[in-house]
Specification:
Elements: H1 3-29, E1 31-35, E2 39-40, E3 44-45, E4 51-53, E5 56-57, E6 67-70, H2 75-80, E7 86-93, E8 101-107, H3 118-124, E9 128-138, E10 146-159, E11 165-178, E12 181-183, H4 186-200, E13 202-205, E14 207-215, H5 220-238
Parallel strand pairs: 1-13
Antiparallel strand pairs: 2-5, 3-4, 6-7, 7-8, 8-14, 9-10, 10-11, 11-12, 11-14
Length: about 250
Amino acid sequence: MNPRILALTIASLAMVAAAAGSLQWLKERVRMGEPGVRIVGLPLISESGRLATSNSVALPSSIPGYRSRLEPIPDLELSFLPPDTTFGRRSYSGGEALPPISASVVLMGTDRTSIHRPEYCMTGVGWQILSQTVRRIEVPGWAPGSLEVQRFDMTRSVRRDDGSEVEIRGIYVFWFVADGLRTASHSERQWRMIREVLARGRSPRWAYISFFSLSEPGAEDATFERMSRLIASAVPGIEREPANPGR
């Protein structure tokens, strides 16, 4: 065999062995962190009516000024995400003249692929993101005091029954939380995961918390303020006290 080809073959095999060894080391040494959200024994169903999960992430059932109901988990989402994913799903209605606010939580298990970049999720279902901003929501009486979130202002075209199309607007608000960790940035979440694994031998168990509402064109800021008040009331019941405060 050509000496150069032989050297490349040996180097490739060494890299494969090193990668396998690293994966085995991670499996043996890295422990899964505690979730940063509350888990309750409340089952959720799928769109087709079958049991989606026997446990779920807590979303407050009672918030002053709102009626709430559990929402089913889409069958496509269940088939796409890992089986150890835990969900939370609830809709809040604050009046006949106002669109409902949908709340969703996706909590990863040992498989980290449960959580994807939010931009991909929104554009994948037909939304066009017009703007992305980081906002802060004040939460009176909550230990952290305030919550940093990401806000997406979005638009999409919907076809009516008569064949015509109408433009609708939506406001999407989200953040990520694990035990003692919180961020509104997907890239920051990934960096913190790497840091926790290398520095502390702990893989954070991230939850992706989001709220969504339709909005009249020109009323986006008013819609966000309404959502902010709901989030401020809901978040103390969603997140749990950290057992291991982040650094």
